[in-house]
Design goal:
The complex is a heterotetramer of chains A (about 160), B (about 240), C (about 675) and D (about 160). By secondary structure, chain A is mainly α. Chain A is built from six helices and no strands. In chain A, helix 3 crosses helix 6 and helix 5 crosses helix 6.
């Protein structure tokens, strides 16, 4: 009899401890507060736009390509065109015409180093037209790297022909 | 004279000081021999009090846990700076960099939880067995003080990791202190070393946790055990008549 | 003492068992240590290095790589310890560009790889630098409030130190910040450093003299359906709110509502008006059916919006009706105004606009009061000024520090579909703000695709962190006020709407005026102000003929000639006329060596992106040409004329050649 | 009594087994604990300046001049033969020495030791020459010093 009482007392105390130390004990016992909802009578629920614009796929350009795109549009697109096809508005009077950069064969034939050389040193130094100016001093190695990263995305958008 | 008699004749006095107050030689000897600070080793112990008797070992377990806490605590101090925000960074160092750091920190933490539980169970058992009755009423009081110190150690240790849990627990706890009549605000001010839980509060809690409270607890445990030797342990208390 | 032997046995059994348990417990820590995540990456890295090693030195370096925690510790940046390199081992090694993560080389960016030691990783990518496990380091553990930024938002971190609107080499962030200012986020939300933001939305006083209640109603109900390019958002008002708002605006200030009455202005000649419209180059700022510069309002549909009397008044002196407008004040004659307005009213009306109701609109007082409450409630006064309502309190919550807000402090409302991340929350908040709860006030902006990403990036960049002084790149707020009579004229002609001077002013013109005096010749400038000639034929936004009186032009040209000069630009390059030999050599350099004709046209030959050089000898000063050729980026750093690295002698010859153009010998 | 003895014997061997097992486990525990203790005390990361660091371009140092890197306690001297990196910590009692360009020597302010630019002791109580350190060239062409690697005194690094 004494032994049972003792066990019972210990059990009760132990249970009390477990309950008191339970991290979720509070919400278990008291529940959570209901959120106050402030209704606006003049606004119909169907008026609310719940479009999921945030879900629209983010254009798949990385940081370097994005920077490259900005530089390309600022410095290169005047002659080479927005999509790099050599049809920029300043190309009209040029002879020879600017290179079509989206050309798949051109893209595969040129390594990044080749491109960097022409962009940095200009067409004259590389034995091409001197209408392609040198950008090395304006852009520097890193930004030319961005531009090349973007150029590569221009070729990828072409359907592959055989 | 009458006041002195009233004090020395009182129950509280007699539960602490067991010998008479008359200036006899016997009392002079007893003053020394029956004082834990002047005579740690008991001059006379009942054989029964030394028996390795059947018990729940709750007191012994708390003592061992305390020893573990002291050991791990000292080791953890090697990698801890009581400063904002370095304290929290040090927790991260223990977790991610220091060899066995997390193991020691967990040992310290679980031993602390365990000690609070075991000390409390120890109190329940003493209470259940009515071991607080004379001659052990003084030791009961000492025990209660030890329980309070255990809780205080636990509480001061809570702030040291300097995380959100610690910060708010101590903010709430020290605001409770304000409820103490008259002195509440002042106690909180002293405890925190200011009005907010900040750098100085962390340092104060650190000193309390690592030096003042452990020292006090060690002394208290000394008195407590010494009294146990003199008066017999809980195990022997129930069902036996004094004398 | 009975059962002594058995009792002791039991004790020894427990001794053995407990000792064993103790051993097991002790083994936990070293075993866990052995299986730490970075170990396997470090061993893998060393293997890859050994495989790639080409020289004995590389082999030696590879063999030196042991298993240890690597960290970037920066004492200047308080508490900055990054251990990311314990797993991302190859970030600084250019040879690992083709390795798979986490060993791959970090791409080249403005601060990497040179400044890893002073920036570390967490500064840009967030996460938990001290951690050495993937979950913890990437901030995915629940005890860490700032998880790693997804890569597409990483530019947000540029903005923690760079406070400027335009951050170099972070065009997504720059775009986001520009959008925030343009869309007027700061009208409702307080953000540190943008207290001085000013709206360019029109003042709303006197609407009853300008437009019709019907048009106003359609406009407020959904501005973008009337004019898709407008910056005014869709406020999502209920019908009763729209009605009361119109009533309120109509009575500010209380007065006439004679929308249709226009006796004093006789009809004009629409054909002459059209010629005037073209000559005045309105599309240098305005658009018509989307064509034009776009910095000012779209003009198609203008006839359905305003009445002719208001239009005439406005064209006569825009500053009287809209003191903050960027529109310059032309010198139009009375007949000009009649013809121009006739053309606009005849041609540029919107077939979908509601027809104006004939009778006068007299809203009841109660409705007007309700409208005022609505006006206040939705914070309209954040953008629009209106007399009698001077409190421009911001109705939205402060956004300083939004970029680092812990996710558990965000209110997701009924958006259970959203992932529990800060960037998703911000994205949904700016793209469909009312979907979180009923009763929210934020209007609907049209933000999609990259614009949305840009705004999220800009918001994430606002961390409210305290950055060490040496890392901060403060926002430069230019402050320049042209003095005296010159200032009055600049204000009248609103030169700064298009031209930049000392960092102040618009960006419509490619020509900042800060050093105009060193650039062009005074006589040319005076003539240009009177009758602008075409310098860049392909631009839509060209200089507008302001019809200014000659004395104004002379004064402006003279002032700029004397004040807007730069001592670094040689005022006189040649003491006398340049040697024809130099001119010839310059011509050769121009065409053969540097290929300048790719952009510049002379006598109809060459590309036409750059300015025409036909009359360059009359227009430009030789010293300017010389200075320009030696480094045009010194003028504006985004000038498209490349820096050829021209030697000094070539520059002199080119200057000689260009100064000889268009001059009668 | 025999069965009793047998039983005792069995008891004894079992007891012995537990004793041995327990004591072995305890020994392993204490051995392991001391290793773990050492591991705990040994810092795995250091909050100190890295021993390997980058300095300027080689041509920024003129022939015959010495540059001092104070935080890392290093001199880099350039002679007509090449470059040499020296520790600036005095070999006597660890004070930080100073280079005096007028005399062309390195002097210690504490006890008056003097060193030549190749590290050799000229005067004073210093027992050893200043240690000569490893020099290297980074891929981007900057001088890299590694204070953790000592090289023989006569080493001179050429470009």
């Amino acid at each position: 009899m004494r032994k049972t009482t003792r066990i019972l007392v210990y059990l009760a105390v132990g249970f009390g401890f477990v309950l008191a130390w339970l991290p979720a004990g509070r919400s278990l016992l008291f529940g959570s507060d209901p959120t106050d909802i402030d209704m606006n009578d003049s606004l119909q629920t169907e008026d609310i736009i719940t479009d999921d614009a945030w879900r629209t796929p983010i254009p798949d350009l990385g940081y370097r390509e994005r920077e490259g795109r900005a530089l390309f549009r600022h410095y290169c697109a005047l002659c080479h065109g927005q999509s790099g096809e050599g049809d920029g508005f300043n190309a009209y009077n040029l002879d020879p015409k600017p290179r079509d950069l989206s050309d798949h064969e051109f893209q595969t034939a040129q390594t990044d180093e080749d491109l960097a050389e022409v962009i940095g040193g200009g067409g004259g130094d590389a034995g091409l037209s001197n209408a392609m100016p040198p950008w090395g001093k304006v852009l520097g190695e890193r930004k030319i790297g961005y531009v090349i990263a973007y150029l590569r995305t221009l070729a990828d958008s072409l359907p592959e022909t055989d | 004279m009458k006041l002195e008699k009233m004090i020395t004749g009182s129950r509280v006095w007699r539960s602490i000081v067991r010998h008479g107050v008359e200036p006899t030689n016997r009392n002079r000897v007893l003053t020394v021999v029956q004082n834990v600070f002047l005579h740690l080793h008991s001059a006379k112990v009942r054989r029964r009090n030394l028996e390795f008797s059947s018990t729940y070992y709750l007191g012994a377990v708390s003592l061992i846990l305390f020893a573990i806490l002291v050991g791990t605590g000292i080791v953890l101090m090697i990698y801890y700076h009581p400063s904002v925000p370095q304290a929290y960074n040090d927790m991260k160092e223990l977790k991610f960099v220091v060899g066995s750091g997390m193991f020691l920190r967990n040992m310290h933490r679980w031993a602390a939880h365990g000690m609070v539980i075991v000390v409390f169970l120890h109190l329940l058992r003493v209470f259940y067995h009515r071991a607080y009755k004379p001659p052990r009423e003084f030791n009961w009081v000492v025990g209660i003080v030890l329980l309070l110190m255990t809780l205080l150690l636990s509480y001061t240790g809570y702030l040291l990791p300097w995380d959100q849990l610690a910060f708010w627990a101590v903010s709430v706890g020290t605001n409770m202190v304000k409820a103490v009549p008259v002195l509440g605000d002042r106690i909180r001010y002293l405890l925190l070393g200011g009005n907010v839980v900040g750098e100085s509060a962390l340092l104060r809690f650190y000193v309390l946790h690592c030096v003042i409270l452990p020292l006090a607890l060690t002394i208290g445990v000394g008195v407590h055990l010494w009294r146990v030797r003199k008066d017999g342990s809980v195990a022997g208390s129930s069902g036996r008549k004094r004398g | 003492m009975r059962n002594d032997g058995g009792g002791l046995d039991r004790i020894w059994f427990w001794f053995a068992a407990m000792s064993f348990v103790f051993l097991v417990v002790l083994a936990i820590s070293p075993i866990k240590d052995y299986f730490r995540e970075y170990r396997k990456y470090q061993i893998d890295y060393r293997d890859q290095l050994l495989e790639r090693a080409g020289t004995s030195r590389e082999l030696r370096d590879a063999n030196r790589e042991g298993v240890r925690i690597r960290q970037i510790w920066n004492p200047d940046y308080p508490n900055r310890v990054d251990r990311c390199t314990s797993c991302h081992l190859g970030v600084e090694n250019p040879g690992m560009a083709d390795a798979s993560p986490p060993l791959r080389t970090h791409p080249m960016t403005p601060h990497t790889p040179e400044q890893f030691a002073s920036f570390g990783c967490v500064t840009c990518h967030r996460g938990q630098g001290r951690a050495t496990t993937m979950m913890d380091a990437h901030g995915l553990a629940s005890d860490w409030a700032t998880p790693m930024l997804p890569l597409r938002y990483t530019e947000a971190s540029c903005g923690t130190c760079h406070m400027d609107e335009e951050v170099p080499e972070a065009n997504l962030l720059s775009r986001g910040r520009t959008l925030m200012a343009e869309l007027g986020c700061y009208a409702c939300h307080e953000v540190d450093g943008h207290e001085a933001w000013e709206s360019d939305a029109p003042d709303l006083d006197g609407l009853s003299r300008k437009t019709s209640p019907e048009w106003l109603r359609t406009w407020i109900a959904d501005p973008q359906s009337v004019r898709p390019t407008t910056k005014m958002p869709y406020i999502q008002l209920g019908q009763s709110e729209i009605d009361s708002l119109v009533a309120f605006l109509w009575t500010r200030p209380a007065g006439e509502d004679d929308f249709l009455q226009d006796e004093e202005n006789p009809a004009g000649d629409p054909d002459r008006g059209e010629t005037l419209f073209r000559e005045s180059r309105c599309i240098s700022c305005h658009t018509v059916d989307g064509r034009g510069n776009g910095s000012a309002a779209e003009l198609s549909g203008i006839a359905s919006k305003v009445n002719r009397r208001w239009l005439i008044e406005y064209l006569e002196n825009p500053h009287a009706l809209q003191p903050e407008t960027k529109m310059p004040r032309y010198y139009f004659t009375r007949q000009d105004l009649l013809d121009l307005s006739q053309y606009l009213m005849d041609e540029l009306w919107d077939p979908e606009a509601p027809p104006p109701v004939e009778q006068a609109f007299r809203p009841p007082q109660k409705m007007v009061e309700g409208g005022m409450r609505t006006f206040r409630k939705y914070g309209c006064s954040g953008c629009h000024q209106i007399s009698g309502l001077t409190d421009r309190s911001r109705i939205g919550p402060e956004l300083t520090g939004i970029g680092r807000k812990p996710v558990d402090q965000l209110d997701f409302g009924r958006r259970d579909d959203l992932p529990r991340t800060l960037h998703d929350w911000i994205g949904a908040k700016v793209s469909s703000p009312r979907s979180f709860r009923d009763g929210l006030k934020m209007p609907q902006f049209i933000l999609e695709g990259e614009d949305l990403t840009a705004v999220i990036t800009a918001l994430l960049s606002n961390t409210g962190e305290v950055i060490p002084e040496e890392y901060r790149v403060e926002r430069v707020i230019a402050n320049y006020d042209p003095p005296g009579r010159f200032g009055e004229l600049v204000d009248r002609y609103r030169c700064l709407s298009c031209h930049e001077v000392e960092g102040v002013g618009g960006d419509i013109s490619t020509a900042p005026l800060t050093v105009e005096g060193s650039r062009v010749q005074e006589s040319w400038l005076k003539n240009y102000l009177l009758r602008p000639s075409t310098i860049r034929p392909i631009l839509t936004d060209r200089m507008i003929p302001l019809r200014m009186p000659e004395e104004d032009a002379a004064f402006l040209a003279n002032f700029m000639q004397n004040v807007y000069v730069d001592d670094d630009i040689p005022a006189r390059l040649f003491s006398e006329e340049p040697d024809p030999a130099n001119v010839r050599r310059g011509s050769h350099l121009f065409y053969e060596r540097y290929g300048c004709q790719a952009c510049h046209m002379i006598d109809g030959r060459g590309g036409y992106f750059g300015p025409l050089l036909d009359e360059a000898g009359v227009r430009l000063k030789p010293g300017w040409v010389y200075w320009w050729v030696l480094g045009s980026q010194r003028w504006r750093d985004d000038v498209r004329c490349p820096d050829y690295g021209v030697p000094d002698r070539d520059a002199l010859d080119l200057a000689a050649f260009i100064s000889s153009l268009g001059r009668t010998p | 009594m025999e069965p009793h003895e047998d039983k005792n014997k069995g008891d004894l061997s079992r007891r012995k087994f537990f004793q041995t097992a327990g004591i072995t486990a305890c020994a392993l525990v204490s051995g392991g604990a001391s290793i773990l203790g050492f591991d705990f005390l040994r810092p795995r990361v250091l909050f100190e300046l890295p021993t390997k660091f980058t300095l300027t371009r080689p041509d920024a140092i003129e022939v015959g001049s010495v540059i001092t890197d104070e935080p890392h306690h290093v001199y880099v001297a350039r002679s007509s033969h090449g470059f040499r990196a020296l520790s600036s910590v005095c070999t006597h009692l660890g004070c930080i020495t100073r280079y005096s360009p007028d005399e062309g020597i390195i002097a210690c302010p504490c006890h008056g030791s003097k060193f030549a630019l190749d590290g050799e002791v000229i005067a004073g109580p210093a027992p050893r020459p200043l240690p000569c350190l490893q020099l290297d060239l980074s891929p981007s062409g900057l001088i890299v010093v590694d204070t953790s690697i000592e090289v023989p005194q006569e080493t001179v690094f050429k470009l």
